[in-house]
Amino acid sequence: VHVVGEQAELREIDLQSGVVSGQTIVTGDGGGLALTLSNGGSVRVDERTRVVFTDNQSVYLEQGRMYFDSRSSAFAAHPVPAPQFKLRTELGEIRHIGTQYMTEVDQGTLVVSVREGEVAVDGIYHDQGLVSGQQVTMSGRQRPSLLGIGRSGETWAWVNRISPPVNVEGRSAYEFLVWACREMGLELTFIGSAEAEARSAVLMGTIDTSPAEALSARLATAALDWRIDEGVIYISKDR
């Protein structure tokens, strides 16, 4: 992960100091970045991406792929609103209404995918509203192409790869599951007395792996078992 310097040179970024308005961030192969926005919400930047953080309310995606989440805290009970946040591209502007969405710019094509909530795309030639489970592709003057997509799976895999560490010290397994399901785009279903077990089990430490990898380790300590089937994670007591 690099920041573009005054002479257009690439300098490795100091993640401890964060990113400030006016900086251009470039990620290389295998790179990625997760940031909490000062105005509310959070973003993740995929590999091979170039993005300008124009101010605390907007970014300009030149190339690559970004993910926006209206929540800035991993365990927030309610979204921390980022009402003024806008993601701009050469092909149009994306505005959110409490949501999780992904934007990709590649060779004159804009692709926006909505995992949760709603977004409005103000394109150069066309506008398009989107809700959860929809994806639009815009290219030049062509009419937008709208498709239905899943909220989990390979399309969103890179987002989980860049999931930032979260402190679960003193949190219940239930809270952890709500977080993991939202990170992975899954619906949560408990079987039998598993919900009561999850609410009583207390976790320790910090999660510094992907949500999927954390499931096995954390639920094993809580005596819970799990399986995923067609976008739903089923939680049961470990036999």
Description:
With 239 residues, the protein is mainly beta. Helix content is 15%, strand content 45%. The chain has 4 helices and 18 strands. The chain has helices at 157-161, 173-184, 194-200, 211-221, and strands at residues 2-4, 10-12, 23-27, 33-36, 42-45, 49-55, 58-69, 86-89, 92-106, 109-123, 127-131, 134-139, 145-148, 166-167, 187-190, 206-207, 224-229, 232-237. Strands 1, 2, 3, 4, 5, 6, 7, 8, 9, 10, 11, 12 and 13 form a 13-stranded mixed sheet that branches. Strands 15-18-17 form a 3-stranded mixed sheet. Strands 14-16 form a two-stranded antiparallel sheet. Helix 2 (173-184) packs across helix 3 and helix 2 (173-184) runs antiparallel to helix 4. It starts with a strand and ends with a strand.
What are the key terms here?
239 residues; 13-stranded mixed beta sheet; 4 helices
* Rg value: 19 Å
Give the fraction of residues assigned to helices: 10-25%
Taking pLDDT < 50 over at least 5 consecutive residues as the criterion, the unreliable ranges are: none
Tally of extended strands?
Answer: 18
Average of the residue pLDDT scores: 89
User: How much of the sequence is in beta strands?
Assistant: 35-45%
Largest sheet: 13 strands, mixed
Distance between the termini: 45 Å
Shape: globular
Number of helical stretches of at least 4 residues = 4
Task: Note the run of SSEs as H and E.
Answer: EEEEEEEEEEEEEHEHEHEHEE
**Which structural class best describes the helix and strand composition?**
mainly beta
